[in-house]
Amino acid sequence: MSPLRVSVQVAGKVTDTRTRIIDAVVSLAETTGLRKLAMEEVAQRARVGRATLYKHFPGRDALIGAVVQTELAKFFADVRAVVEQYDDSDERLVHGFAHAYRALSTHPVVGPVLTLNPDLFVPYVITRDSFALNLGRDFVESFELTGLSETARPQFAEHVARAFHTLILIPSTELGLDKPLGPETYARNFLIPVLNQLRRTAGAVD
Questions:
Q1: Torsion on CA atoms 135, 141, 142, 144, rounded to nearest 10
Q2: What pLDDT is attached to residue 170?
Q3: Cα–Cα distance between 84 and 87 in angstroms, integer?
Q4: Which among 153, 63, 60, 168 is positioned nearest to 110, based on CA atoms?
Q5: Which helix (H) or strand (E) holds 131?
Q6: Nearest-10 crossing angle of helices 192-205, 89-105
Q7: What is the pTM of this model?
Q8: H and E: helices and strands count for the chain
Q9: Range 80-95 burial, b when 16+ CB lie within 10 A, else e
Q10: Which of 157, 165, 177, 183 could form a disulfide with 98 if both were Cys (CB 3.0 to 4.6 A apart)?
Q11: What are the structural domains of the chain?
Q12: Using CA atoms, how far apart are residues 178 and 29, in angstroms rounded to an integer?
């Protein structure tokens, strides 16, 4: 067997093991959150030995961090696939926001963690340099919304990201987001008008 083939097989095995471990954490978190997550329980659920688990993740914090990054990567790829279905930039915003809201509000881990141990989100969300907010702002900027000035583009992106984070972390009772077209209606009523005002401002300046 060639060295190249061996290296590919080994890499594939490593990836498969990491995926099984991360999937095991997600499965456990669906029912118990992450506060009482035990490395031994993860190893058992993933069907790997303790030594293998610690080889990939030296501790609980590293494991939770890897789960967050993996799930965020899946989330953004999923939303991106929806956004790319629309040519009109306003529709990209409306449907991207709506899909993102539904994806996170029904995520099997987000709900239990918000209920059982919401403080675990603090390092990723509620900090001076918020990891989640920065990702969300950059992602909205990538929607290529038309008619915005160079100054307004990142400002509007942060506005959308901050609204989104608030709605996920503190579920709304009056905005109707859980109705069939609730997220789309919210985007059209509260995001598109701000976007259009910024466009008018940019036009006036030009």
A1: 170
A2: 80
A3: 7
A4: 168
A5: helix 131-141
A6: 150
A7: 0.78
A8: 10, 0
A9: eeebeeeeebbebbbb
A10: 183
A11: 3-205 (1.10.357.10)
A12: 23
